[in-house]
Specification:
Layout (H helix, E strand, L loop, with lengths): L5 E4 L2 E4 L3 E12 L2 E12 L3 E5 L6 H9 L8 E6 L2 E2 L5 H7 L1 E4 L11 H11 L6 H7 L4 H4 L10 H15 L3 E5 L10 H13 L3 E6 L10 E6 L2 E7 H12 L10 H7 L1
Parallel strand pairs: 5-10, 5-11, 8-9, 9-10
Antiparallel strand pairs: 1-2, 3-4, 3-6, 6-7, 11-12
The structure holds adenosine-5'-triphosphate and magnesium ion.
The site of magnesium ion has 4 residues, from α1.
């Protein structure tokens, strides 16, 4: 892939014109219901790209389709990663290529200690941060947490933070973060954004899935998902304005009046 001249965005250097992830006309049906309805999206290598969308618009479904989870094979369309068509690849093959998903509702990995989980994550990727530093960055004191077991006794918020720490430890090529703030109340939004910046500075391209427009502050570009389609991609401020105008009082969740929206946009 040709590397173009970098462009400066805040304190980030972003290679320009290099698409790490390209989604072409993706349709996906679950239990007879069409959820993704022709998603087109291009994420540049090195950027933090926010996907903004209200509840039920298909954000998690899109995340699972990119990760290749069972039951989320598209009915139509293609997913390209680093120029390679990965539409038919398994979740394991995609993970090996460097794609990681941090879940909206993280699972508990029964039996492993947090230390083991973070070490496994680090070995699976190209991470260079110490696992202790990864935990501290997400607000969990390492001495209190490293030897705890990942089980149901950890709160949802603690599991969520451990998962963010695992992404930091792994430093994958692409991290899909599905609502990274959900369930986390102690860490402020600014602290989560700092974690995302650290990830990005470590070389990870971030697809940041959220319904909170404040997160656009950390992103280089954003896309607005509505009713299973990307309605707009561009500079964050522009996309946030579009989202505010058309989604805050949307009465057509997953059934947008596209024609009307496009007219106004
Ligand atoms: N297995 C399924 N069968 C039928 N409908 C489903 C299935 N999974 C999800 N849906 C529907 O698809 C739509 C999109 O769901 P999805 O979880 O992707 O939304 P989301 O944008 O992540 O929402 P949230 O912001 O609440 O997390 C919702 O209307 C949901 O009810
Ligand atoms: Mg979701």
């Amino acid at each position: 892939m040709a590397m173009a001249k970098p462009r400066e965005m805040g304190d980030h250097w972003v290679p320009m014109g290099c698409h790490l992830l390209v989604i072409e006309d993706l349709f996906l049906e679950r239990e007879g219901r069409l959820i993704l309805r022709g998603v087109n999206l291009a994420v540049e290598e090195g950027e933090i790209h926010a996907i903004l969308g209200a509840n039920g618009t298909g954000k998690s479904t899109l995340a699972y389709a990119i990760m290749g989870l069972a039951g989320y094979r598209p009915n139509k369309g293609r997913i390209l990663f680093a120029g390679e068509d990965i539409t038919e690849k398994s979740v394991t093959e995609r993970a090996k290529l460097g794609i990681t998903l941090a879940w909206q509702q993280p699972a508990s990995f029964e039996g492993l200690t947090i230390r083991e989980y973070l070490e496994i994550s680090k070995r699976a990727g190209r991470g260079y941060l110490r696992i202790e530093d990864c935990l501290a960055l997400v607000g969990l004191p390492p001495k209190n947490y490293l030897d705890r077991t990942l089980n149901d006794r950890l709160s949802g918020g603690e599991r969520k933070r451990v998962e963010l720490a695992a992404v930091l430890a792994m430093a994958p090529r692409l991290a899909i973060l599905d609502e990274p703030d959900s369930g986390i109340d102690v860490l402020s939004l600014d602290d989560i954004m700092e974690v995302i910046r650290r990830m990005n500075r470590g070389g990870t391209t971030v697809l940041l899935i959220t319904h909170r427009e404040e997160f656009a502050r950390v992103a280089h570009r954003a896309s607005h998902l509505c009713g299973g389609r990307i309605l707009k991609t561009g500079e964050c401020a522009e996309v946030v304005q579009f989202y505010k105008n058309f989604c805050k009082e949307c009465t057509h969740i997953n059934e947008p009046e596209l024609e009307k929206t496009e007219e106004k946009g």
